[in-house]
């Protein structure tokens, strides 16, 4: 164990972490571990320029690229027992986005990076808030003491609203430079 910024005790990457359920239900959604069969639907979302407007380097336009990305997501699940999820509307069963937490290093500290991407047809329905909130709650309960960080572009007001609604606060100490420019950090650090 080590100590992260803010005096929080943290486990090493290789330490045993309780597995995230393969399917995590919320009031209106079902978050589940990705499957390669989800690749076509994920491509439909991540190839939409509106979805990656604030992170254009994350746009994918080829099925092969999504399959590589999903193998990366699944490898994180295999190594750590949690990761990026595909998000489905419960009533329709339609894949509407992806949301998850994954290990990353920021400023020399290991953190749980929270990310979310949703089909524009679902924007404004509170799905990102519902999914991200469920995963932050799972992380805080299952991996206590680990810092959750959402990296958000300063111009991405919608994602900033999601982060604050789920209890994350602006934390300039973890601001970072991303591939597409500066990222503001929103964390669960008190």
UniProtKB/TrEMBL annotation:
Positions of the N-acetyltransferase domain: 29-189
Source organism, top-level taxon: Bacteria
InterPro entries, A to Z: Acyl_CoA_acyltransferase, GNAT_dom, N-acetyltransferase
Pfam families noted in UniProt: Acetyltransf_3
Signal peptide: none
Full protein name: GNAT family N-acetyltransferase
Organism: Terrabacter lapilli
